[in-house]
């Protein structure tokens, strides 16, 4: 996989769900990705909103963005995937318990399906933009809170919400507590009812979070 990514000539599409990346992985990826930019490869990467508060990942994003890489974030991201030049893709092999193995896909039809899925998420995602070398992108708190509450109404547990959005269970609980205090709710069931009536989850961007159990 590393060899294929390093050999990209035109385009690299990456979806990385979860929170911030480890410092070790970022240190390893940075010189490779900077080299891709130097060769004129268009690099687009999707993360979850949680990376906007993770300093090591932000430092990496700042470096590659300065060279032309495009980074966007979503509350939710589909399965991890890497697509090189639309000719080979790598997806998780879930037969392995820790999901550390990847499957290489070269079938044109499957690759086109993966590219279409990526593009669908890309147009719904928020760009990570730096106005200066010293200005970090803001965390989309309102959108994250809305996503948490939408998943609460759908029936997800705090732990499931945290996993899905790439944030901590404590952060999930804080968002829920604040909503409960605002609406005067005394139970989770009552909170769901009040949220549905309040209109707090209605927003022009509400379709960005489409809860799914698939």
TrEMBL record:
<dbReference type="InterPro" id="IPR051797">
    <property type="entry name" value="TrmB-like"/>
</dbReference>
<dbReference type="InterPro" id="IPR016032">
    <property type="entry name" value="Sig_transdc_resp-reg_C-effctor"/>
</dbReference>
<dbReference type="Pfam" id="PF00196">
    <property type="entry name" value="GerE"/>
</dbReference>
<dbReference type="InterPro" id="IPR036388">
    <property type="entry name" value="WH-like_DNA-bd_sf"/>
</dbReference>
<protein>
    <submittedName>
        <fullName>Helix-turn-helix transcriptional regulator</fullName>
    </submittedName>
</protein>
<feature type="domain" description="HTH luxR-type">
    <location>
        <begin position="133"/>
        <end position="199"/>
    </location>
</feature>
<dbReference type="InterPro" id="IPR000792">
    <property type="entry name" value="Tscrpt_reg_LuxR_C"/>
</dbReference>
<dbReference type="GO" id="GO:0006355">
    <property type="term" value="P:regulation of DNA-templated transcription"/>
</dbReference>
<dbReference type="GO" id="GO:0003677">
    <property type="term" value="F:DNA binding"/>
</dbReference>
